[in-house]
Amino acid sequence: MTAVRFLVNGAPAEVDVPGMRRLLDVLREDLGLTGTKEGCGEGECGACSVLLDGQVVDACLVPICQVEGRIVRTVEGLALAARQRGELDSLQEAFLEHGAAQCGICTPGMLIAARAYLDAGGESDEDDIREAIAGNLCRCTGYTKIIDAIAAVATRPE
Amino acid sequence: MPTRTLTPPTETVERALVVDPGQRVPGRASGLPLRREGPAKLTGAAKYTDDLVFPGAWYGTTIRSTEAHARLLAIEPDPDVDWSKVVVVTAADIPGHNVVAAIKDDQPILVPVGGEIQHHAEAVALLAAPDRETLRQLKGRIRLVTDKLPAVFDPEASQHAFARTEIADGDLEAGFAAADLVLEGEYRVSHQEQLYIENQAIIAVPGEGGGIEIHGSMQCPYYVHTALKRALKIDDVQARVIQEETGGGFGGKEEYPSMVALHASLLALKCRRPVRMIYDRHEDISATTKRHPAIVRHRTGVKRDGTLVAQDIEIVMDGGAYCTLTPVVLSRGALHAGGPYRCPNVRIRARATRTNTPPNGAFRGFGAPQTEFAVEMQLNRIADALEISPAELRRRNAYDEGDATPTGQVLRESVAAHEVLEAAVEASHFERFRAMTAAEAKARRGSGTIPDEPYRTGAARTARGIGLALGWHGAGFTGAGEIHLASVAAVELTADGRIRVLTAQTEMGQGTKTIFPQLIAKELGVPGEWVEYPTQDTAEVPNSGPTVASRTAMVVGGLCITAARRLKEQVEARNGGLPFHEVFRDDATKHGPTRIDERFEPFPGEPFDEERYKGDAYPAFGWAAAVATVEVDLDTGEVAVQDVIAVDEVGTVIHQILCEGQVEGGTLQAVGYATIEEMKLQDGRYLNDRLATYLIPTALDAPHIRSILLEAPYPHVPHGAKGVGELPMDVGAPAVVAAIHDATGVWITELPATPERILAAMAPATPGGAAPRSAA
């Protein structure tokens, strides 16, 4: 067992688990943050994308021992991080309005990838957005409305 | 460079109403309700099955065969292991029938000792343990003793047919005799995995008195309900099935969840605690159903002007090891096999056979994408042979109002084949683009190492092309299916003044939870937020049939609107004719609850004769056209699908954004089907049974998709809606393959059109290589 301390969505967390336990399982099972989903367990689908120190990672590929002292942000922390008063931040709102979430299982990971893109100054260029979300598989939307939603946020100041 | 975005249509298409894509204002602004469960999905609050916590729950797993065909002689748990801390279930533990209830009772829940294993990854035993680590350790300690039997993998060699269908109309011989050109073709399509991003997931909770409660990811709670009752020998009340948030289905969660629920239930009943049966991706791909592979052969007779005079079509589908839904998949495939074209002399012979491979089942389109790929290929090759534009050839043959299909179904209303065709041709500037690609091919001629060969060239590494396909899709269950289903849906005004819509129609991303309240609110004249859409729980909602076959909006939506209309009339009548929205709360206080149940009544038309295959096969058809543009790398054979214009006529559009979402998503699945999605098998086992090896399109692979919706309302449902879910899946693949032909000059007759197949087809005429531009 290894004691690991880190920040999740702005709040300190401490777990005492095997060091090779996946960050995904720590989030979902030890911390009850089930917004992050598992789609393949081998880093192909991006459903478990979270931000680790602002970088998009697949939580199924990150052992918890690598998270010591670092900052994790999940879908549950998106609106929080934007200091949003309402339930949804501007990106979530855009997804809702554009119909970018259908079954919703890829949505948390997709939002995380999109958030990282926007936070890095990403603009509304379609090809750039496609590149930014290329690690996140969606089987419902054909990606069109996801790209529209991200582009809409990129073109308006938050 | 190819155009990334093609400009929208400029003129309104006659008869059908164009929903102009330029006019769209997303979401709230246009007055459409936002996705009802959207905020929960966007914040991570939505609970999918694997997100649910059941204290004390154990983890379940399935012990599967590693052979394609064998006799099961024994199941031997390792004697050195202490098995007292876990439970093992075999067929001997099943209290009722050892069958997964479907069309035929041929599929066991678990293969019994002495019985036959019919496919790789077939379920033989079950194991549950308090934690996943124990489960993983012990799973490998149960040995299956088997005696290998000869296996059949070729559907054409199989002697066992699950179903046969023949549709005949006119005089085939006379038709061919009158033809100026007779063209033959053989087309093959591969398995396709639904690849919902949420794997199969069920949690079974044992109740009092042998009852069982299922929480799971599924399309059809009542299918699971029926399966539980038969296998566990329990009644309607003891079996309770609750759909949880479902992360995609596409047909893959139509019949298979019954199997998972039975497995979880058997374990839960034995260990007397909740059991979580959550598949990982590898297990999900190896064991669950796929789209049926098919071989489709066409012999087509046409006049010099392109008029179709004879179609002789043979279809062979690979059903896999058990029947599942194969007969109806085959039926739908056969009924759509001629395409949306007038032809006086037709014979369509179809059979689906058994092979020792995992069973194939429902997947968006349900047999039609396979056969419509073939007929559209055939049409495009005829256009090529006659030197007629593919658009013009379709213009000359596409159904008009009043035409009859090969089953004798007269298309009386809501026919829009020409409208979708013209809208797609116009929006894509099809003829202009085709002239450009022809000029480019001419410019390449002689520029390369092969004299006079326009398609292999040293001067340009890539070639672009454009392709067109037209299609149709019957809305609702096939034939007399809706009559057999006899769906019931209800609208209820509760004693405390709430309005509830009660159906078994599930939300799996397509928008059920949004459109039902929207439709009912409109009918009752109340704000959408006032209408509740309770959970799909068999203890709460009536059996309004499965959420499949593009039937939800049309059939069940219609029932609910009729129920709402009756509720409104009753309430207004007993409140002095005052409008419903003003009086319903007082009415509930005064009169108590009012619930209106509406049962399905047959649509008008000729009843379908299932023996002779005559009559109205579907109440109505949706119509679709797709135009794809591609860029093909002439050195590597790699295809980039650049743009797809998808035009779909779906009856009344209930919710434009959700409807477009169906078209865009279905189109991309079709593009994947056309280009990259392929299951490879060895000895009946899927080789690429992981997401690292079975590829679906990413955002970079996906073309720019533009959906154009047309409306030709169906008059026999109150809201005029038909179906949209499956329609776009039927036309994407043939459009892409036609575009590949336009770019390269070769016809790829086997899906997917991989670089290997394209390069092989483009290879110069040498032994083992097809001649370039060969027409099969």
CATH class term of the domain at 1-6 and 18-46 and 421-475 and 619-776 in chain B: Alpha Beta
Largest sheet entry of chain A: 5 strands, mixed
Report the C-alpha radius of gyration of chain A, rounded: 15 Å
What is the CATH class of the largest domain in chain A?
A: Alpha Beta
Number of domains of chain A: 2
Structure characterization notes:
The complex is a heterodimer of chains A (158) and B (776). Chain A is of the alpha+beta class. Chain A has two domains: 2-78, Beta-grasp domain (Ubiquitin-like (UB roll), Roll); 85-154, Orthogonal Bundle (DNA polymerase, domain 1), CATH 1.10.150.120. Chain A has helices spanning 23-30, 78-81, 90-98, 107-119, 126-132, 144-154, and strands at 2-8, 11-17, 49-52, 55-58, 71-73. Chain A has a five-stranded mixed β-sheet with strand order 2-1-5-3-4, sandwiched between helices. In chain A, β1 and β2 (11-17) form a beta hairpin. The longest helix of chain A is centred in the last third of the chain and has 13 residues, at 107-119. Chain A is globular, with a radius of gyration of 15 Å. Chain A starts with a strand and ends with a helix. The model of chain A has no long low-confidence stretch (mean pLDDT 95). Among the domains of chain B are: 1-6 and 18-46 and 421-475 and 619-776, Aldehyde Oxidoreductase, domain 4; 492-535 and 544-599, Aldehyde oxidase/xanthine dehydrogenase, molybdopterin binding domain (Aldehyde Oxidoreductase, domain 4). In chain B, 27% of the residues lie in helices and 22% in strands. In chain B, the strands form six sheets. In chain B, strands 4-6-2-13-10-11-12 form a seven-stranded mixed β-sheet, sandwiched between helices. Chain B has a five-stranded mixed β-sheet with strand order 1-26-23-22-17. In chain B, α4 (221-232) packs across α5 (256-271) and α8 (368-386) packs parallel to α17 (732-744). The interface between A and B is large, with 57 and 61 residues.
